[in-house]
Design brief:
This protein has 2 domains: 181 residues, Beta Barrel (Lipocalin), CATH 2.40.128; 120 residues. It contains 4 helices and 25 strands. Helix 1 packs antiparallel against helix 2. The two termini are 39 Å apart.
């Protein structure tokens, strides 16, 4: 059941959405989208299918279109095809990208759509992908699930500790965790290994769905399957999870800033339950827009004011800039980059 304030939003959808949310959401004061300015818009050569992510420290965006993953150069518009067809996720250090290699499993269509989960999680170096080299430097054949999110728990000039969390739709909707030790030699990956013989159960003490780790792994956000609220959690050394903040509303996938202070996400004041599982199915009248929640001041801030369009999946850069994807009329799309004034 939706919270009362979200029901009121739906009843008051003819009012300006800033006014509706300002008066009804249970948070502190708002700032205006005018605090942000657009610095770049680039149209992809192909129709984005779902999720995307900017590659830290580069002009590239990773996105999926049809049956192919791609890297789009925001400065030139050029695109590079990269392996497979399920989300390619850049790590917070940028030069490593993870891509599931999965075998289609048509038996799962009646319940989940074509979501296969039989295959391997593969790790690639960005510069090799840009050169057309499609060979991963590491494969994990034991990690269940296709949905993935990754953090860097520790980084030195010569090593890093990665944490990957996956969700399995076929394995009783369970969420799994694996940590990896990575060694570098002059910024090249020299070796990588999984630290646990078998993936750990993530949050065995509570039920969550679609987790998103912060860049450092200090926090993560996930959907509460009962209330459908997006909630922010912390996790102890035994991988048990504790609630940190309930955002008290359904949102799209969140992204944490690199300093763990801000959380960005998209929402629809017109149809709060519709949080864009697949972008091409969304009605432009939903007025989906981007917001930021400040974990220090507990304030909500508007980032976008998309007129006659929908804006989805915000993602931070290391410098604090923000990317999102804008759906316009006739299912045309643009990737947008903003910076704070």
């Amino acid at each position: 059941m939706l919270p009362l304030f979200l029901k009121k939003i739906r009843l008051l959808f003819k009012s300006p959405k800033k006014v509706c949310l300002l008066s009804l959401l249970p948070f502190a004061a708002f700032s205006s989208p005018q605090e942000w300015e657009m610095i770049k818009k680039t149209s992809p050569q192909n129709t984005p299918k779902y999720f995307f992510r900017p590659v830290p420290g580069t002009p590239y965006i990773s996105y999926t279109s049809g049956t192919r993953n791609r890297l789009l150069n925001m400065e030139t518009g050029a695109e590079v095809k990269i392996p497979h067809w399920v989300d390619a996720v850049p790590t917070p250090i940028g030069n490593v990208i993870t891509i599931p290699r999965l075998v289609p499993n048509f038996s799962v269509k009646p319940r989940f759509g074509f979501i296969p989960e039989f295959g391997t999680m593969e790790f690639y170096q960005l510069d090799n992908l840009l050169k057309g080299k499609a060979k991963p430097f590491f494969r994990d054949r034991k990690l269940p699930g296709a949905y993935q999110t990754i953090a860097v728990l520790k980084k030195t000039p010569h090593s890093a500790l990665f944490r990957m969390v996956t969700e399995s739709f076929l394995n009783k909707k369970r969420v799994f965790l694996q940590d990896y030790e990575v060694l570098f030699n002059q910024n090249k990956i020299s070796s990588m290994k999984a630290l646990y013989p078998k993936a750990k159960r993530f949050c065995p003490n509570i039920e969550i769905s679609l987790p998103m780790l912060s860049k450092t792994g200090k926090f993560f956000a996930a959907v509460d399957p009962l209330t459908r609220h997006m909630k922010i959690y912390t996790m102890d050394k035994n991988f048990n999870c504790q609630l940190y903040k309930d955002l008290e509303m359904p949102t799209g996938k969140v992204d944490f800033s690199y300093d763990d202070r801000f959380v960005a996400f998209h929402v629809s004041p017109i149809n709060p339950e519709d949080v864009a599982h697949v972008v091409k199915t969304q009605k432009l009248g939903n007025n989906i827009d981007i917001m930021i929640y400040d974990l220090h001041t507990e304030s909500l801030n508007w980032v976008s004011d998309c007129q006659k369009s929908n804006c989805y999946y915000p993602s931070f850069t290391p410098k604090g800039d923000l990317y999102y994807i804008e759906q316009r009329k006739n299912h045309s799309y643009q990737f947008v980059k903003l910076k704070r004034k």
